[in-house]
């Protein structure tokens, strides 16, 4: 129950007139209808809404009052249950530590496959005909509508093996006419451009650089070391920087906070570190030069000053804000880090393991299908009988 002060109940005269008019018009009607009309009028008043929001904000994190009404002996037992819950949180933390160890173990099993993927992309290895054979899920069918004697009839034709072979030969001739590409050009750039989370970071001046990205690898911390993982971006030699490896490391923690143990919900990223990029002179896309005119206050003369300022770029990903020992950050830095953690986690969990599906767009289609299904379910729920 919220009790508004007299100040909070004050309304503009126009609002009061509207309420009075509603009351006069609705005289004799159902009391519930009058109450609803009055509520609508009040909810349209920004001062009342602001007052309610202030009261609601004050209730966040506060007890419901039910615990205070319990007998002392019952409260004592509830405290015992909460102590059990803390122990559960510590067991859950151990569970996630073992999950991390399993991830590390299976990462070693996946890696030979990822290495072969990298070799194919880089044209180090040419896959055999057997490795390139991909069986379609179902035979392709072509349906046409033909008109005969004024009536339309539909006929379905199934592509025969002979037809498929002719199409294959025709496609091969087209490939021969073109320049023979090596490996899979622009593989990772295409992956990035196909994923909204990553494409939002890309600028036009980033794309020529990312064409040189050859592989992304995930490395987990060694056994017995603090929980962490690294994203290693491998580049071929290029004109933009001398590095062939750019690294981003995420430090994690899997233990309940002593002050707020019930907030534990699995491992959380505590901070991240990037690396120094050794840019070629004049090629640093994370900086831009601007010219500003300055007027002298006394003499009135004008001079042009050149300044170097930060520039939007994907490569800012490798220079995240530093987290101070106190752990306190301003709102902008918190927002940047929150987005950074989401991107790092997504690259580790989705992009690296399923890169080819993001390259072809199939992974994105799967994600879209999931959202469509949810939307259909939601529509079903509100559809009238």
TrEMBL record:
Gene3D superfamilies: 1.20.5.1500, Nucleosome assembly protein (3.30.1120.90)
Gene Ontology CC terms, in alphabetical order: nucleus
Name of the protein: Nucleosome assembly protein 1-like 1
Compositional bias annotation for Acidic residues: 11-30
Any one GO biological process: nucleosome assembly
Domain of life, source organism: Eukaryota
UniProt record similarity statement: Belongs to the nucleosome assembly protein (NAP) family.
Region (Disordered): 1-34, 365-385
Pfam family for this entry, one: NAP
Taxonomic lineage of the native organism: Eukaryota, Metazoa, Chordata, Craniata, Vertebrata
């Amino acid at each position: 129950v919220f009790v508004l002060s007299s100040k909070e109940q004050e309304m503009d005269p126009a609002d009061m007139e509207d309420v009075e008019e509603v009351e006069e018009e609705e005289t004799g009607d159902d009391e519930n209808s009058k109450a609803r009309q009055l509520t609508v009028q009040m909810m349209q008043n920004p001062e009342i809404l602001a007052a309610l929001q202030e009261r609601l904000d004050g209730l966040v994190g506060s007890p419901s009052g039910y615990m205070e009404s319990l007998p002392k002996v019952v409260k004592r037992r509830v405290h015992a249950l909460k102590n059990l819950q803390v122990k559960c949180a510590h067991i859950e933390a151990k569970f996630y530590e073992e999950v991390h160890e399993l991830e590390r173990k299976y990462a070693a099993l996946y890696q030979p496959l990822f290495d072969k993927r990298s070799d194919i992309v880089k044209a180090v290895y040419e896959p055999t005909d057997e490795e390139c054979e991909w069986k379609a899920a179902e035979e392709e069918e072509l349906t046409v509508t033909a008109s005969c004697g004024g009536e339309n009839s539909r006929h379905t034709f199934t592509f025969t093996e002979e037809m498929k072979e002719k199409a294959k030969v025709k496609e091969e001739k087209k490939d021969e006419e073109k320049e023979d590409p090596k490996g899979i050009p622009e593989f990772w750039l295409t992956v990035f451009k196909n994923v909204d989370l990553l494409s939002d970071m890309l600028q036009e001046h980033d794309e020529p650089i990312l064409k040189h990205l050859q592989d992304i690898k995930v490395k987990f911390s060694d056994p017995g070391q603090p929980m962490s993982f690294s994203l290693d971006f491998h580049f071929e030699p290029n004109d933009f920087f001398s590095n062939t490896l750019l690294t981003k490391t995420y430090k994690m923690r899997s233990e309940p906070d002593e002050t707020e143990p019930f907030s534990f919900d699995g491992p959380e990223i505590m901070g991240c570190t990037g690396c120094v990029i050794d840019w070629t002179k004049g090629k640093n896309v994370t900086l831009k030069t601007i010219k500003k005119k300055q007027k002298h206050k006394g003499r009135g003369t004008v001079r042009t000053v050149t300044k170097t300022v930060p520039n939007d770029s994907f490569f800012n990903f490798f220079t995240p804000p530093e987290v101070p020992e106190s752990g306190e950050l301003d709102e902008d830095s918190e927002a940047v880090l929150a987005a950074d953690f989401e991107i790092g986690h997504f690259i580790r969990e989705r992009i690296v393991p399923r890169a080819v599906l993001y390259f072809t767009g199939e992974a994105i289609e799967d994600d879209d299908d999931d959202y469509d299904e949810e939307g259909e379910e939601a529509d079903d729920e509100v559809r009238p009988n």
